[in-house]
Amino acid sequence: MQVSNITVSHDGKINHVDNVSTIIPRGKITTIIGPNGCGKSTLLGTLSRENKPQQGQVYLEEQDIVQYKPKEFAKKLAIVYQQNQTPKDITIEKLVSFGRLPYQSMFTNTQDADNEAINWALESTNLLEKRYTDLEALSGGERQRVWIAMALAQKAEILCLDEPTTYLDMYYQLELLALIQKLNQTYGLTIVMVLHDINQAIRYSDHLIMMKQGKIVAEGAPSLLTAKNIKEVYDVNVAFKHDELGAYIVPLGV
Ligand SMILES: Nc1ncnc2c1ncn2[C@@H]1O[C@H](COP(=O)(O)OP(=O)(O)OP(=O)(O)O)[C@@H](O)[C@H]1O
């Protein structure tokens, strides 16, 4: 995806995303990082057409995303939110099947392809055995996997995730990030996500976009992060460590 001079304002006064241009590399994991309120979700929501930019364009396969019909766009890009309203009395399988809506029409029978995609989505997220379980009976971590399964059933090449690990304990955070990595490495999905944990961003991303006050201040491989630019962006002092675990930061204080 190519983002070209995007400006988004939620209130018509402040530019919450301010003249941003970037490229989301295909087949890679891109993570948007930055302090609270810097515009991460607004940028992600612009890629997924949830936010309409006042200025600029986003191109997907050389076509402006506004030109795609809703169903065609849903076949290209799926998004999973941080928190989702859980419908009552619905099984995992039923929820995942909603991911097939972009493919259904009155004139074509897509049942075989639908079943195949649903099975693949359930298998990839390790939910096959629980397919007939009610969503309400699941823990928060399992539920997040179901929403990802629904997005996978959409069979889109680009998967956007807005703070997918928020509200999850350490176990489910790591499980979810490993799943995202598997989806990228095994199926070549392009991942674009927002994360707050810098160490997770370093460990699981190929590409980082670092934002501050609606602008991109640095982008590239995780090695672009330094104690200096983290201080500038987050106003936090960190120590950078490099050892057999790879690179990671240790927050020292504000
Ligand atoms: N629907 C909205 N109406 C008005 N202002 C909004 C709306 N959504 C976001 N904003 C404002 O836009 C700015 C950027 O918000 P955004 O959610 O994109 O930031 P973020 O970097 O994702 O923040 P966080 O890390 O806290 O989730 C914030 O100041 C926020 O208050």
UniProtKB/TrEMBL annotation:
It is found in: Cell membrane. The keyword Thylakoid does not apply. Residues 1-238 form the ABC transporter domain. GO terms for biological process: iron ion transport. One of its GO terms (cellular component) is plasma membrane. This is Iron ABC transporter ATP-binding protein. It comes from Lysinibacillus alkalisoli. Gene3D superfamilies: P-loop containing nucleotide triphosphate hydrolases (3.40.50.300). Keywords: ATP-binding, Cell membrane, Ion transport, Iron, Iron transport, Membrane, Nucleotide-binding, Transport.
